[in-house]
Amino acid sequence: MDKVNIHFTEIDYRWDQEISEHIFDIYHLSGWINSSTGIDKGKSKGIVAEYRNKKLFLPIIIRTINNEYWDATSPYGYGGPVVDSSLTDGEVDIILKSIKTFLHREGCVSLFVRLNPITNKKWSTSIGSSITHGLTLISDLAKSEAEHWQETQNQHRRGIKKALNNNIITKIESFTEERINMFAKIYRETMLKVEAEDYYYFDDSYFQKLSTNIQNRLLLITAYENDIAIASSIYTICEETGIMQFYLGGTTNKYRDLQPSKLITHIARNWGRKNGYKILHFGGGVGSTSDSLYRYKRGFSSQELLFKTWRLITNSEKYKELVILTNEIAELKLESGFFPLYRDTTARTVDHSEKMA
To answer: What is the model's pTM?
Structure first.
């Protein structure tokens, strides 16, 4: 059998050059990955595996467990592996099996990967566990303006018209320090309004990193009422593969009734269509549930994709040992939805809700 060659690599411009030969997304690029290290409190690394002159790339954030062991997660967002399109499912299994052995040898206990609903749509492997969490929504940007308006729900159409009738204007803007601060303020006000988990309160340094690292791949769309910024959203754009995605957004509480966020989404979809992008990915609900956020996004398109994660325990003995050390429950539920279970701060109770690491 042909050998699988695996090695770690730095996440830098050389990484970007290599993955650019394949189908990738914004979440696979060094600028995004290195901006995300603070969120997951770790160090970025790339895994490159080659088999029969075909490659699989996996960006990870390494998190320390102790002096001897570590685990890894994919960078924040929809990352997942970048896979040579000519690899068969069987060849991918062979590569992943070798990656598991490689990571075990390097001191890794577990690996958690958020799969990309678009680039990993056909992901299928018998190695590890693939879990389906819920639905995400996309808009086909090959459709016409009339078709997009037709698939927009009546409630959203009324909201867009209301914003326009109230002379709300939108601007597509570049990132400056002043605009970053403006966006962060609006975004955090929205997070407080929806009582979001602490994890989503990104600090200013994160937005500064994004602006520095991938400014030319970010679209900032802001709505104004009499020169006052009342709503703002960030979209990511990957020109090479035609993928555009909603990332973060918010509306000030005072102007929520004017529906500026619906106008922004409408403008973003128009921009993507006019600039030759293929897909606008809206994402899904909080925790991939069919909540009010999901229903809001579905108002612009009912075309759905599945959001999945892939989990791999590379050292089962150490994994179980860590679970025992971090739990005081009598009967451990190793099949809990949280992964890895030893990082679940709520695992002291017998019942575990479905969560993502």
So the answer is: 0.90
Judged against a pLDDT cut of 70, whether residue 246 lies above it is answered with: yes
Kindly state whether residue 311 falls inside one of the protein's structural domains. Answer: no
Does some domain include residue 188?
yes
**Residue 293 CB-density burial (10 A; 0-12 exposed, 13-18 middle, 19+ buried):** middle
Question: How far apart (Å, rounded) are the C-alpha atoms in residues 323 and 340?
Answer: 9
Backbone angles phi, psi at 290, to 5 degrees: -90, 65
pLDDT (mean) for 329-354: 58
Q: Is residue 325 one of the residues assigned to a domain? A: no
Helix (H) or strand (E) holding 127: none
298 lies in the same domain as 254: yes
Q: What range does the domain containing 275 cover?
A: 136-306
Residues 168, 190 within the same domain? yes
Please tell me the total number of residues recorded for the chain in this structure.
Answer: 357
* C-alpha to C-alpha distance for 61 and 173, rounded to whole angstroms: 31
Asked whether the predicted pLDDT for residue 330 surpasses 70, the reply is: no
Sign of CA dihedral 46, 50, 53, 56: negative
62 & 208 share domain: no
**Whether residue 72 sits in one domain with residue 33:** yes
Per the domain annotation, does 338 fall within a domain? no
Q: Give mean pLDDT, residues 238-259.
A: 96
Cross-strand bridge partners of residue 286:
none
CA distance 337 to 271: 38
**How does DSSP classify residue 52?**
T
Residues 99 and 152 in one domain: no
Residue 336 confidence class, pLDDT cut points 50, 70, 90 = low
CATH number where 290 lies: 3.40.630.30
Query: Which helix H or strand E contains 223, and what residues bound it?
Result: strand 218-225
DSSP states of 13-36: HHHHHHHTTS---GGGSHHHHHHS
For residues 267 and 262, give the distance between their C-alpha atoms in angstroms, rounded to a whole number: 9
- H or E element at residue 310: strand 303-313
